[in-house]
Amino acid sequence: NAGVTQTPKFQVLKTGQSMTLQCAQDMNHNSMYWYRQDPGMGLRLIYYSASEGTTDKGEVPNGYNVSRLNKREFSLRLESAAPSQTSVYFCASSWGLLGTEAFFGQGTRLTVV
Amino acid sequence: EDQVTQSPEALRLQEGESSSLNCSYTVSGLRGLFWYRQDPGKGPEFLFTLYSAGEEKEKERLKATLTKKESFLHITAPKPEDSATYLCAVTYNQGGKLIFGQGTELSVKP
Q: What pLDDT shows up at residue B1?
């Protein structure tokens, strides 16, 4: 039982390049999330998906897009990477949005040069 | 503004020295308060969920409590392996998703 799996674990991009971060969960959860974590800023929500077929913006959505491919998978795309997007990205999933705990992946450390 | 604030930012303890971490929240319609532990280079690991004022949860040396405005994570006789960053998060009616505090970095020295 893997839980939440993120790929890749590490990535270096040049400014302007694009990439997609992949996330899959095997817990049959309805809701999925993408967060970024920066020193001194805590975990900030980028986008979330309450259920299959829906996505909504979080606190810091600019420069990102997401796709809820199916119930298991939720991807995050950077169309034109900027140095300000250098961060650690975490995917998480939960049964629902309210009142249920979320389980996190191991993170993707992204550096944009 | 709806927010979650944790204090202190960093806490250094000697092994066996009990203490508490604080998480205060200013949201209406709390639907759940969550505590997580995060080790360096890893994702947050779920510890506890609290739903209503007066509720308490325990796990080994950790005890979480909840009031109408804040939650405490009490650490009794900590050990070096308890060193980590502890994160607090909430879901609430108007927010609709999980928001986090900044975290408390705990260091326990032998």
A: 67
